[in-house]
Design brief:
It comes from Octadecabacter arcticus 238. The longest helix is centred in the middle third of the chain and has 15 residues, at 105-119. The protein is built from 13 helices and twelve strands. A hairpin with a 2-residue loop joins strand 1 and strand 2 (13-16). Helix 1 (33-44) crosses helix 3, helix 3 (62-69) packs parallel to helix 5 (105-119) and helix 5 (105-119) runs parallel beside helix 6. The chain is globular, with a radius of gyration of 19 Å. It has helices at 33-44, 57-60, 62-69, 72-77, 105-119, 138-151, 164-172, 197-204, 218-221, 225-237, 241-250, 265-269, 281-292; strands at residues 6-10, 13-16, 19-21, 50-52, 79-84, 86-87, 100-101, 124-129, 154-160, 178-184, 209-211, 257-260. The chain has 297 residues and is an alpha/beta fold. It has a domain at 6-184: TIM Barrel (Alpha-Beta Barrel). The structure holds NADP nicotinamide-adenine-dinucleotide phosphate (NAP). NADP nicotinamide-adenine-dinucleotide phosphate (NAP) is lined by residues 21-24, 52, 160-161, 182, 211-217, 220-221, 242, 259-264, 267.
C-alpha cells in the first residue's frame, strides 16, 4: 500500500486524507462484488482506506452492495464511515409517507443494526448524523450515540451538514466528542470558507470532510472562467481538473478530507494526483477569484 497522509480523529482512529464516497456505488450496471473490490483495491493501492457510506445511499442498497464485496482481508484494511437519520420512501423504507429526519434513539439503533448487517461488519468506525434534525432531542440522541460507542457497535460519532450551533447542542449532551463534520465544500460551493463552518472546526481542532469536491462532476465539464483557470493549473502540473479541485481543498489549513465519488476505476487511480499539484497562495487565490466571479476586495 502506498503511503497516504492520515488524519487522526481519536487516539484509536485515523482516516486517510482522501476518502472514497459510495453514494453512487449502485448507479452502474456492474455492482458485483468483483467490481466493488476493484474500486476499493484501486483506493488501497494509494493508501486510501476510508470508505464513506450512508444507510440511504442507493435507496438503502449501497451498504449491501459494498458489503457483498468486503472480504475479511479488505475489511481489515479499511475504515467504514456511514450515516443515518434521513428517511425517504425507498427500499426498506418504501412505506415512508415522504422525506423526513429521525434522530430518536430507536431509529438510530435500528439503523446502525441494519448497516452492520448489510455491510457484514461488527463495527462502524464512524457514524455520522446525516443532516441536522429540527426535532432532535439532544439528550435522547446524545445518550443513544454514547451507548452505541460504549457497546462497541460504533467507534466514534460525527455529523454532516451541521451548523456550529447544531454541533454544540448535540455535543453538550454527549460523553464522547464529535470527531468530524462532513460538509459540502468545493470550488463550486465554498460558503463554508467564509460563513464560519470551517473556522469553527479549525478552532476546535476537528478535521472536516468535504462532500462533492468536484461539484458532483459539474466542475469537470464546466466551460467557464473557472474551468479554464483549473485547466491552466492542470496543464502546468501535468494532472487533470479533478486533481486541481482537490488540491485546492487540501491547501486549506482546516485539514479537509475530500470525499471523492467517481465509479470510474481510472479516475479512482488518479485520486493521489492531487498531492502533485503545486498550489501556491497565488494559484489558490486565482482559482478562488475565478470561482467567485470577481477579484477579492
Ligand atoms: N453528507 C452528505 O450530505 C453528502 C451529500 C452528497 C455526497 N456525499 C458523499 O460525498 C461523496 C462524493 O460526492 P459526489 O459523488 O457528488 O462527488 P464528486 O467527486 O464531486 O462527483 C462525482 C461525480 O463526478 C463525476 N466525475 C468525476 N470525474 C469526472 C470527469 N473527469 N468528467 C466528468 N464527470 C466526472 C463522476 O462520474 P463518474 O462516476 O462517471 O466518474 C460522479 O458522477 C458521495 O459518494 C458521498 O459519500 C455526502
Amino acid at each position: 500500500m502506498a503511503s497516504m497522509e492520515r488524519i487522526t480523529l481519536t487516539p484509536d482512529l485515523s482516516l486517510s486524507r482522501i476518502v472514497y464516497g459510495m453514494w453512487r456505488l449502485g448507479d452502474v450496471d456492474d455492482t458485483s462484488p468483483k467490481a466493488v473490490q476493484a474500486k476499493i483495491e484501486a483506493c488501497l493501492e494509494q493508501g486510501i482506506t476510508t470508505m464513506d457510506q450512508a444507510d440511504i445511499y442507493g435507496g438503502y442498497m449501497a451498504e449491501e452492495i459494498m458489503g457483498a464485496g468486503l472480504t475479511q482481508d479488505i475489511r481489515d484494511q479499511i475504515e467504514v464511515v456511514t450515516k443515518c437519520d434521513i428517511l425517504a420512501p425507498a427500499g426498506r423504507h418504501s412505506d415512508a409517507p415522504g422525506k423526513y429526519y429521525d434522530t430518536t434513539r430507536d431509529h438510530i439503533v435500528a439503523s446502525v443494526d441494519h448497516s452492520l448487517r448489510l455491510m457484514g461488519i461488527d463495527k462502524i468506525d464512524v457514524l455520522l448524523i446525516h443532516r441536522p434534525d429540527p426535532l432532535m432531542d439532544h439528550h435522547e440522541t446524545g445518550a443513544a450515540l454514547d451507548a452505541l460507542v460504549a457497546s462497541g457497535k460504533i467507534g466514534a460519532v460525527g455529523v454532516s451538514n451541521f451548523k456550529l450551533h447544531d454541533w454544540t447542542l448535540l455535543e453538550s449532551a454527549m460523553a464522547s466528542k464529535l470527531v468530524t463534520n462532513q460538509l459540502e465544500v468545493s470550488l463550486s460551493t465554498h460558503d463554508a470558507l467564509t460563513n464560519g463552518d470551517l473556522a469553527f472546526l479549525q478552532e476546535r481542532g476537528v478535521a472536516p470532510m468535504a462532500w462533492s469536491p468536484l461539484g458532483g462532476g459539474a466542475l469537470m465539464t464546466a466551460d467557464t472562467d473557472l474551468g479554464r483557470a483549473m485547466d491552466a493549473v492542470a496543464g502546468d502540473n501535468g494532472v487533470d481538473r479533478a486533481a486541481v479541485a482537490v488540491a485546492w481543498l487540501l491547501a486549506h489549513p482546516a485539514s479537509i478530507m475530500p470525499v471523492m465519488g467517481t465509479n470510474n476505476i481510472s479516475r479512482i487511480k488518479g485520486f493521489s494526483d492531487a498531492f502533485n499539484v503545486k498550489m501556491t497562495r497565488q494559484t489558490w487565490f486565482k482559482l478562488y477569484e475565478s470561482a467567485l466571479g470577481h477579484e477579492v476586495a
